[in-house]
Design a protein that fits this description.
- Helix 2 packs across helix 3.
- This protein has 4 helices and 3 strands; from the N terminus they run αβααββα.
- The chain has helices at residues 8-42, 53-60, 64-72, 90-99; strands at residues 50-51, 80-82, 85-89.
- Strands 1-3-2 form a 3-stranded antiparallel β-sheet.
- Helices cover 55% and strands 9% of the residues.
């Protein structure tokens, strides 16, 4: 079938199919790029021992203001200074968190008080 045998409807249909096919190819390419960037974003990171202030507060389940208060009251550990940055040791946070509310906690009465 040559071009002269096409009706205007056939040409319109062919044009539509070409447009749909090119749109599908473009969409597939975009999805592929999106998939690649999503895979990059989902790559596991190395386990971290040190957390910044916000992360440390989130780790123990409180806001930064409450976390600062707990650090000031010595309920939570002081940060380590690394190159001018304050970093909380996750092991120390775990230990301090285990002690909160226990009989030996700073804010509970003990037999010597």
């Amino acid at each position: 079938m040559n071009t002269s045998d096409h009706t205007p409807q056939d040409i319109s249909y062919d044009h539509m199919l070409t447009h749909v096919a090119s749109t599908m190819v473009a969409t597939a390419e975009k999805l592929d790029r999106l998939g690649q960037s999503t895979l990059k974003a989902q790559r596991p990171t190395a386990p971290r021992r040190g957390l910044n202030r916000t992360e440390a507060a989130q780790y123990i389940g409180v806001g930064t203001t409450k976390f600062d208060q707990l650090v000031q009251e010595r309920e939570m550990p002081q940060p380590k200074k690394i190159g001018g940055r304050s970093v909380w040791d996750i092991v120390a946070l775990d230990s301090a968190f285990d002690e909160i509310g226990s009989p030996t906690s700073v804010h509970t009465a003990n037999a010597w008080d």
